[in-house]
Design brief:
The complex is a heterodimer of chains A (629) and B (148).
Chain A lengths: L7 E6 L4 E6 L2 H7 L2 H12 L13 E4 L14 E6 L6 E6 L3 H7 L4 E5 L6 E6 L2 E6 L8 H12 L5 E4 L2 H4 L7 E3 L3 E3 L4 H7 L2 E7 L4 E2 L3 H15 L6 H5 L4 H8 L20 H8 E5 L9 E6 L6 E5 L3 H7 L8 H14 L3 H16 L18 H13 L3 H5 L3 H8 L1 H4 L4 E2 L2 E2 L10 H9 L13 H4 L24 H20 L16 H12 L5 H21 L30 H12 L10 H6 L10
Parallel strand pairs in A: 1-6, 7-12
Antiparallel strand pairs in A: 1-2, 3-4, 3-6, 4-5, 7-8, 9-10, 9-12, 10-11, 14-15, 15-16, 17-18
Chain B lengths: L11 H11 L1 E2 L7 E5 L3 E5 L6 H5 L5 E3 L6 E3 L9 H5 L6 E2 L6 E2 L9 H5 L10 H20 L1
Classes of the chains: A alpha+beta (629), B alpha+beta (148).
């Protein structure tokens, strides 16, 4: 009998068109706790180094965790784990909506997808049954059309559809997988991986539910979480959505602008969360089981950017299609967001690729000869929207843009390097690493999937947000030194920030709920109460920490095996130069190496290579990940 | 009483209902329903305790609870024939797949779990007159929207 988990893994081989259901081993699952932890073990053991992420041998794991689909307020998430075609690293893309919960209600914790179908197919999983169905008629359709067609065809309005759009079919290296129309497993190019497998969509629905080991105790723990979240410190997330950050970040000089050349945007008040709420919001929308409802449904009713109701835009997206491209027209931003959703594109990498090309145009590295006569000027919303459309179809200049910033810069030569804002090939998101938080700068350098602020956690919670998130009792340095400090304390602190975030990842929880202090967020201690009463395992916060550490180390091992090491833990050159204007003028990153040294040491990793030592791996019970070299 | 203007479609009410009634989290074993459709439609559907089902029950298994005035299922008498589900005007009665008996909202004896835990206050347990006024409003609006 399984509590909390469905207890089953589904393995689908698209080459042979066969699938099999595997029973999970309780002890093994508990060791990694689930979700990305267990997926990291699967991919490390089943996907040898050097496999082309777009080859049939590449595998994809759809993963849910203990709290996915439960009334734990953060339980709307699932994760897609794979090797990224954009970066060549480990990647995990989290998404909300209803997909994860419904996959679990259908009776599966994990789906492993292997091989490549001869012709377009989709996978239909419902109540323990699995079908691989022809998707020829869906190929070429966008996300909305695909979702609507499948709802009609399967005659079930309650299904959850995770699908790619044209961008994934066309192999755009940062194509996303979109579920429930507007929720994106966005980063790293999972859409291209689906496309390479001729896999259009995965459709789920189930009536199985999730059994609870100790219902009364579980209800009490969830009630506690609901109470605690009433004191949530980031109150603007529920009321303004993440877009509420635009005004705040701009006032602090940490709003990335013009491809990170600046950190302050004069016209930020025209694209703020307040304006979005007042003029374009239809309603707030929640992921499955979420008590915050940070999602917005918006539309532009008329004009050249008219857009049907659609999820978003989020803060990241507003910055990417706004300040990053110098655009101050919120309607153009909403339109660009809409197009990304229906074509299946990561808004961050799309916006950054456009911002990069605008900077290259400004500097004369790209000319109208390259762009079919289209000037790529800062602030031109119309051109930006056109580029999004062309990227999805890889038309003209956008064949070039569809490869992402790193590859573009390599082709344009050393002069473009300065404008290439990425780490390990992943374009940076809308958080300024010089001025927002120096732990964030470190995170960008070391995050397993490249320049990322969310995996496994938003590092700025600790020093910028002054939130301990329940980690003080594990030994997290407290109080944080000031935000711009670059002493070893930052490196040590990041160990705790990362592991705290990783706890959410291995439980299948949304990270937003774990930002606060005891009494105002779901701390690891409270997660332990929730998971214990749910699964019947008596899990402590320490055990969650240990499982998180396993998962975090395994991802590092995955990357190490692909040839990544300390050398690749670096920031774009731009961040070693001072911010030119705005409230954060003069700030730069100076001592990344000091923070790196301290972080590796705190993790028990080798300082020279930045990778886990054999001793560390033995200590964690990960002997299989010790490399032969 | 369910208020679509505040509902965000999170389905927490369904989870609390099934957890309270069956000790599991399973929206398909819930006596409160959220209909979430595109674009941007989220409607919590709850039993209004009208009692039409009482009249059609062949075994007398449905009756009104004197304290809460809720229509409740007598487990001793219900045979799971489904007559009540046939007649329910808003479709909030179902035959439970495990107990094989009629399942419906019994207002949790006067403190409904869904209302207590709705994060948006979209499901509320109100005094009769206030609830009736809101129901009129919702019924009228639902029809007005269709005519627009």
């Amino acid at each position: 009998m399984w509590y909390g988990f469905a207890g089953k893994l589904l393995r689908v081989n698209l080459t042979s068109g066969e699938f099999k259901v595997e029973e999970l081993d309780k002890n093994e699952l508990r060791k990694y706790m689930g979700c990305v932890g267990y997926a990291a073990k699967l991919l490390y053991q089943e996907m040898p180094a050097g496999i082309d992420p777009l080859a049939p041998e590449a595998k994809v794991v759809l993963a849910t965790g203990a709290v996915t689909g439960t009334s734990c307020p953060s339980g709307g998430s699932y994760e897609v784990c794979y090797k990224s075609p954009l970066t060549g690293t480990w990647n995990q893309a989290r998404s909300g909506g209803a997909f994860g919960p419904k996959l679990k209600y259908a009776g599966f914790d994990f789906v492993v997808i292997e091989g490549k179908a001869k012709e377009p197919v989709y996978i239909y999983i419902h109540d323990g049954k699995v079908e691989i169905k022809a998707a020829k008629h869906l190929w070429g359709l966008n996300v909305e059309e695909t979702t609507d067609t499948l709802i009609r065809e399967l005659d079930d309005p309650e299904i959850s559809v995770a699908t790619i759009g044209q961008a994934g079919e066309n192999g755009v290296l940062y194509a996303a997988l979109i579920n429930d129309r507007g929720r994106a497993a966005g980063r790293g190019g999972i859409g291209a991986v689906f496309g390479s497998k001729n896999l259009k969509a995965v459709v789920v629905n189930g009536r199985g539910g999730i059994k609870v080991a100790r219902p009364k105790e579980f209800a009490a723990a969830i009630e506690k979480a609901e109470q605690w979240l009433k004191n949530y410190p980031l109150g603007s997330i529920p009321t303004l959505g993440t877009v509420g950050l635009v005004s705040l970040n701009n006032s602090l000089g940490i709003l990335p602008t013009k491809n990170f050349q600046e950190t302050y945007f004069e016209k930020a008040d025209q694209i703020s969360g307040e304006v979005l709420n007042r003029k374009y919001q239809i309603k707030r929308r929640a992921c499955y089981g979420c008590s915050f409802a940070c999602g917005r449904y918006t539309s532009v009713i008329s004009g050249k950017y008219a857009t049907p109701p659609m999820e978003g835009p989020e803060y990241e997206t507003v910055d990417m299609f706004g300040p990053i491209c110098g655009v101050d027209d919120l309607e153009a931003i909403i339109r660009a967001n809409y197009l990304c959703n229906v074509y299946g594109l990561d808004t961050v990498s799309t916006g950054m690729s456009i911002g990069f090309s605008m900077e290259c145009y400004e500097k004369g590295l790209l000319t109208e000869k390259d762009t079919e006569g289209m000037p790529l000027r800062w602030g031109d919303g119309e051109v930006m929207v056109k580029l999004v459309e062309k990227i999805a179809h890889r038309e003209g200049i956008c064949e070039f843009l569809a490869q992402g910033v790193k590859r573009m810069a390599e082709q344009l030569g050393p002069a473009a390097e300065e404008a290439a804002i990425h780490v390990k090939g992943l374009e940076l998101p809308a958080h300024e690493p010089r001025s927002e938080s120096k732990v964030l700068a470190l995170q960008y350098a070391v995050s397993p999937r490249g320049g990322c602020h969310m995996h496994p956690n938003w590092a700025s919670t600790w020093d910028f947000g002054q939130l301990d998130c329940g980690m003080k009792e594990f030994g997290m340095p407290w109080p944080p030194k000031e935000v711009q400090d670059e002493s070893p304390q930052k490196g040590i602190a990041y160990r705790y920030v990362a592991l705290q975030g990783e706890i959410s990842e291995i439980l299948g929880a949304c990270i937003f709920y774990s930002w606060g202090t005891e009494g105002s967020c779901i701390t690891p201690q409270l997660y332990a109460e929730i998971v214990s009463s749910l699964t019947g395992w008596d899990v402590t916060a320490e055990e969650l920490m240990l499982a998180a550490e396993r998962s975090w180390n395994l991802k590092r091992c995955f990357n190490a095996r692909e040839g990544f090491n300390r050398e690749h833990d670096k920031l774009p050159k731009r961040f070693t130069k001072a911010i030119p204007n705005g409230p954060a003028k003069g700030i730069k990153v100076v001592n990344l190496d000091v923070m790196l040294d301290a972080y590796y040491e705190a993790m028990g990793w080798d300082r020279a290579t930045g990778n886990p030592t054999p001793e560390k791996l033995k200590e964690l019970g990960l002997e299989f990940a010790i490399m032969a070299s | 009483m369910g208020d679509p203007s505040l509902c965000t479609g999170c389905h927490r009410c369904e989870m609390w209902c099934s957890l309270t009634k069956y000790g599991e989290i399973n929206p398909s074993r819930s006596n409160v329903y959220v209909v979430r459709r595109e674009p941007a439609v989220d409607v919590p559907v709850v039993c209004i305790q009208c009692g039409l089902c009482i009249n059609v029950c062949p075994t007398g298994a449905l009756k009104r609870d004197k304290k809460t005035m809720a229509v409740v299922v007598d487990k001793e008498k219900c045979v799971g024939c489904g007559m009540c589900t046939n007649v329910c005007p808003i479709g909030v009665l179902r035959i439970d797949k495990e107990t094989k008996m009629a399942a419906k909202c019994d207002l949790c004896g006067g403190s409904p779990a869904c209302a207590a835990h709705c994060p948006q206050n979209a499901i509320r347990y109100e005094v009769a007159n206030k609830a009736a006024a809101k129901r009129r409003e919702l019924w009228a609006m639902a029809h007005a929207v269709r005519n627009r």
